[in-house]
Amino acid sequence: MPERAEFTLDNFRGEDRQLDPAQLGDGARWQLNWEIEDKGTALKTRPGWGFLAAGDRYGNNDLPALLSIYAKDKGFQGILVAVVAGHVRERGIAIGQHVFDDGSVFGSALSRVVTMYPQDASATYWPRGADLGTNEFEQVDWRASLTAAFGRLLVFQPHQVPVHVYPSGTANVPIVRTLGIDRPVLCGAGSFTDQDDFQPTVATGAAGNLTGDYRYVLTLKNKDDKFPTESPGSLPSASVSPSSEQVNISAANVDWALHPSSAVTHVGIYRKKVNDTELWSHYYWVADVALATFESSGYSDNVEDGTVLSSEILDEAKYPMRGFGYAHFHKGRLYAGNQADWSGLADMTQNNYYATLKPSAGTPGDSRYSDFIQEGRRVVIAGTTYTILKSFQDGSGNNRIYLADTDQAQDVDAYARFFYTPKQYTGTTLSDAAARIPGNKRTIFASYYGAAYCGYRHVLYEIVPGQDTDGELTGLGTMRDALLGCYEKALFLIHGGDFADNAENGNVFPDWQWRYISNGIGLAAPKTLSWDADGNAYGYGGPNGGVWTTDGLSIRSISDSILERRLLEFADQKFAVGGFDHQKRVYRLFFPHSLDGHGFAFSFDTGDWWETNHVAPMALANQSPVAAGTIPAFEEVVEDDIVNTWTLTIDIEEV
Amino acid sequence: MGVGGGNNVAVTIGEETVVYNYPVDVPASIEDIADETEVELEANAAIGFAFQTWLGDVPAGQETTNPLTVTMDQARSITARFEYLL
Prior knowledge:
- Chain A is mainly β.
- Chain A has 5 domains: 9-120, no CATH class; 129-194, no CATH class; 200-318, no CATH class; 322-382, no CATH class; 389-520, no CATH class.
- Helix content of chain A is 6%, strand content 35%.
- Chain A has 7 helices and 42 strands.
- In chain A, the strands form 12 sheets. Chain A has a 5-stranded mixed β-sheet with strand order 7-8-5-10-12, with no helix packed on it. A 4-stranded antiparallel β-sheet of chain A has the order 2-1-3-4, with no helix packed on it. A 4-stranded antiparallel β-sheet of chain A has the order 15-14-17-18.
- The radius of gyration of chain A is 26 Å and the shape is elongated.
- The relative contact order of chain A is 0.12.
- By secondary structure, chain B is an all-beta fold.
- Chain B has one domain (8-84).
- The radius of gyration of chain B is 13 Å and the shape is globular.
- The chains are: A mainly beta, B mainly beta.
- Chain A binds chain B through residues 1-2, 142, 568-569, 571, 594-597, 641-655, and chain B through 7-9, 11, 13-16, 20, 22-23, 26-37, 39, 41, 49, 52, 55-56, 70, 72-84.
């Protein structure tokens, strides 16, 4: 049985008796996961995610936040459970062994539990969740926390893991995606009506001091509290161009902050330097306006440029975060897409927040020249708006980028709307797509959910006899001039063949060749498929398959037995997400949940550890409510009890 | 309360419930349950039967509690005994 230490967030953040990585020696790494237990009266939540903090001996904290939570003073009265895992690579301690905060080693165990009561929390961690208003909900899935705050409901979710929300009955629920968070997945018979983001609206006003181009962001502040706090920045405003005028600023969806319990007192107004078209450069403080005043009257900015440039700069850590699920560099531009259910591509190149994919050299609406990105989520081609499922590049080094829609895939560089796409299979949902160029003829492959009549998928069906072809492809990608196909328990490589004709003609050439890379281990979690710079693929094959990498010839496990034992805990493995970190050359894998309510993230080193086939949970740095470089502290660590598992045998007898 | 035809035991771990029907599904072993996980067992009697008792690794004093919640702090083997009424 775990003993549980109680302490306040104040203590946790600043007092002694902390887990000091210095005690672990050089190379030590650790991580700390928080969860919320449903013990409070104000916290209406199911067990779910808190935040993950991690670091190493050197205080590095650089993993994108998995979740930030609101922990305002008396804002909630739940219990946070911290699961701490420390790991030491040096000091003669074997890989896989772990340590307590006093430096003692405890075998191969990973975790231990502490508990704190944050009723005295002194910091405001602003929510990264969706504001669900005061509506009633029947259910929120296990990856989310539904919390009453400000007299309203907020659903919190880890990044890149969409959560499912079930409105009560057929209710239509206005939903505000606060501060850049992603939209929950709607389930049940209800509906969502998207409200505007928390984003400033700007317009030129009365005669004044400003001339040039400006953008603004807003923050919410509590200036009266013992510990004044400030939220992350809003989405940036559109550019506004006053000419010896003032700029009038207002914002929708700040009314919820008026609730007395919100403790929001002011709106912070920041703006860019005049004529600075770089979207993510500095924002300078302009003014703090009382919330009620801002709500009713907005604010008219007439502060001269020289004054603004000498004022405070909005902390970059407070810049709005985007929940991009993927990104591609393409011809000097970064295209980043949001999550699957609210997906799309945005050209995030500087100066092009809502940018066109191509230079505007044609008639708007012409699919050859004018592929417009709208609001970073959808693309308009020839006047039709498409929701983007995925972007991908071909496998032949031609550096073309494709967008997969719900019913077709398109080459954004060419007149590709009807180019080798299975467009006629409308009404189905495209689950994946990839491109290859045999003989310099573009072919886009697509797989569908439950669409056995899709020609391209049928090709895959035919060439993988004996496999679980009734199941769906869990992954599809290009591997040099071949195609990597993934089932849950098999990997195969497709090569040869000529291009497939426009599928509308029904001519799919069947001369493909294929061979197994693996017959038994496949891709169990679709979102874990990723590539390194050398073209090797990585993925997660489930508890029995572990984490693998393949060069197209063979498959190699990069997870060891200790880790695989841990992987058994993750019940809903298909929701794991993974990706290759090209900067650090590690493959990162994140499990949002496990049977006992915990979630973990791992990274897999492709350096020396890889050579020795040792892979263990490494430190995952964070962008958590704990400031970078700050070492979270806790008072007491007790026994490990997370790793042990037991068997329950059930029988029935009749007498 | 019977569910379907024969006697059965519904086992709930977290969000998931699995029903083990007599005699086709038992004995059954559920492996790799995390330490300290609470598991709920509900014995559902078929028509003509009544749940009598739990046997095996059952917390003291809870032999006739139905549904029964056990904490998996050890390996457990639990048998649901149903008595024939007619």
